[in-house]
Amino acid sequence: MRLAAMLDPALVATDLKAESKSGSISELMDLVVRKIPGVDRAGVLSSVAEREEIENTSFGRGFAFPHARTDLVTDMFVALGISRRGIPSPTPDGRPLQVVCLLLTPRNIAQLYLQTLSGLAALAREESNLPKLLAAATPEQLVRVIWETGLTIRRVLTVRDLMHRDVVTVRPEDTLKVVANKLYRYKVSGMPVVDSEGRPVGMISERHLIKAALPNPESVIKTPASGPVAEPFDELLRHEEEIRVRDIMTTNLHIATEDTPIVEVAAQMLSRNIRRIPVVENGKLVGLILRRDIVSKVIRG
């Protein structure tokens, strides 16, 4: 199904007047109320605000996708607005918002909701789409612009819909110190190890760093050391610029592609007790799918 088929011109505003993100959401909600008289406007806005508090839905590139799963609506609605002046708001790349898309869906619609969000993200990732959207003078023209992108919504939820595309990586020759610094700086718990051509060759995580200091944790549990607990870590720190990623990483990789169904990835994660799976195209790393993504984006929404 085409992404544009999800859009109703009655829920499209080509010249938002709001000067804040919350104001633009409220303005789009006015369109929803006209479309669905009697909907609990305040209740829906509260659900959207609650979702924003959990995580900022500004995507970057001038786009934001505020959304909520709430039983205050009985069907999925997509309201889209264009701000020609731009709306100042915290965004990943510092760019003001120019396209705000409000997505509302009842709780029992999960897959189509996530696939629609994925389709909207694909719309935002293509830089050439924004000028065309801004040039649309009427709601009908704007829907036509999106139709002409050819973007579709797939029937099966796949890795493409949830994966991270900007992935922090390390090389096999990097030191333990480099790994520890990246884990801290980027607030991640693990990352792929790639070779000089960008192919994943391993995975390294907080667990591997701790295991480098405590290679035999069972013995510590059975026979607690009488000396200071930090001694193994002191020894590790003394050699942090000598130990290489290749010395402690795992090479037991489980790979996915963008077209791998999410249910298959979830089954792999459960059966093999793994938290992250590299996503490859032509053998090269293009993304990463995390166990927590399935919780935060599919289950929590």
Short account of what is shown:
The chain has helices at about 20-35, 40-55, 110-125, 130-135, 140-150, 160, 175-185, 205-215, 215-220, 230-240, 245-250, 260-270, 290-300, and strands spanning about 10-15, 60, 65, 65-70, 75-85, 95-105, 190-195, 200-205, 275-280, 285-290. The protein is an alpha/beta fold and about 300 residues long.
Order of helices and strands: EHHEEEEEHHHHHEEHHHHHEEH
**Please, what is the oligomeric state?**
single chain
Shape, please?
elongated
Radius of gyration from CA coordinates: 23 Å
Structural class, by secondary structure, is alpha/beta
Main sheet summary = 6 strands, mixed
Low-confidence stretches: none
Which helices and strands appear, and what pairs or packs with what?
Elements: E1 12-13, H1 21-35, H2 41-54, E2 58-60, E3 63-64, E4 67-69, E5 77-87, E6 97-105, H3 111-125, H4 129-135, H5 139-149, H6 159-162, H7 176-185, E7 190-194, E8 200-205, H8 206-213, H9 217-222, H10 231-238, H11 245-248, H12 262-272, E9 276-281, E10 284-290, H13 291-299
Parallel strand pairs: 1-5, 3-6, 4-6
Antiparallel strand pairs: 2-3, 5-6, 7-8, 9-10
